[in-house]
C-alpha cells in the first residue's frame, strides 16, 4: 500500500473496506436454509429473517445520513463495520429464533451504515468532471462484495459448517478496521478536502428535482430485486424447466453485467452528461424487463436477464447527480433519504412479485416494473436539470424556473466526508 501514491491510498482503503463489508452483509444469504434447519425452525423463517434484515436497513438509512453530516463518512463506515461484526457474532452464537432475528436487524443496520457512508465518500472525493467515475468505484465495491460474499460463505460452510462461515465475519471486520486505521481518510478542513475545481460554489437542485430523482432508486430496486432476483429465477425454473445450476450461472453472468454497466455508465456520465447515462439506463432496464414477456424462450430469458442487470446502474448515476447538486453539509441527509426510498423498492419489489406469482399474473408484475422505470425516465427528462458542469448551459437553456439550478457559495463548515 505504501507504494501507491498518497492521494489514492484513502480511496483504495475505503473501496477495499466497502468490498469487504458488502461481502460480510451477504454472508448469511446461502446459509439461511441450513441455519433454520439446524435450529429446528420452519422454512418460512428464512423469509422472516430477510424481512427483519430489510427493516433494519430501512430504520438505519436516515440516521446514517445524519451521522455522516455530523461525524464524517469514515466514522460512519467504521460504525457499519462494528454493527456487521456484532450482528454476525450474535448469528454465530444463536440457538433460538429470537437471537436469529435480533442478528438480522443488527446486520441490516450495519449494511445501511456501510452502504450510505461509502456512497457519500465516493460522491465527494472527486471534482464534478470525475464524480461519476468515482461513484463507479463505489458500485464495484458494493456489487463485487455482494457477489463474493455468498460464494465464500458457501465454501466455508462446506468445509466446517454454517457457524464456521459466519464466524469468519468478525475476523474480516477486524482486518477491515486495521486497513481503515492505517490507510483510511482523516478529517480535514473544508478547503483541503474539496476537490480541485470545486472551490467557488456548489449547484443546488430544486426540491421538485430532488423528489423526481428520488423515484429513480425505487424504480431501479423494484425492477432489479422484484423481477431480476425474484421473478426471473421462478420463470426459469417453472416455464423453462432449467436446473438451479443453470439459473445460478445466468444470474452470475448478470452480476458481472451489472459491474460492467456501472463502469461504462460512469464514463458516459463524466464525458458526456449525467442524463445521457441515466435516462437510457432506465429505458434499457425497462426494455430488458419487457423482454421477459416478449421473448418466451430460453435464449430470450437469458438475454432479458443480462440486459436488465447491465442497465440497473441508475441508483449510482442518480447519487452522482445528488453529489453535484446538494451542498456538502446536507449531502449525508439527502443520501440517507435517497437510500431509504431505494430500500423501500428493495422491499416492495419481492412483495409485489410474490403477490402476482400467487395470482398467476407474471405479465402484470413485468408491466408494473417496466412502467415505473419509464415514468422515472420521463420525469427525469422533464424535471431534473443537467448537473455536469460542462453541459449545464446546453442542457438547461430554457429550463422552467422550478427546474433550474441555483449556485450558492460554500461555507467553511466541515464536509460530511473525510
The CATH C-level class name of the largest domain: Mainly Alpha
- Poorly predicted runs of 5 or more residues: 188-201, 393-418
Give the fraction of residues assigned to helices. Answer: over 70%
Output the number of helix runs.
16
Q: What structural class results from the helix and strand content?
A: mainly alpha
Number of domains: 2
Order of helices and strands: HHHHHHHHEHHHHHHHHE
> How are the strands of the biggest sheet laid out side by side?
1-2
The CATH homologous superfamily of the largest domain is called MFS general substrate transporter like domains
Query: In percent, how much strand structure appears in the residues?
Result: under 5%
Annotation keywords:
418 residues; mainly alpha; disordered C terminus
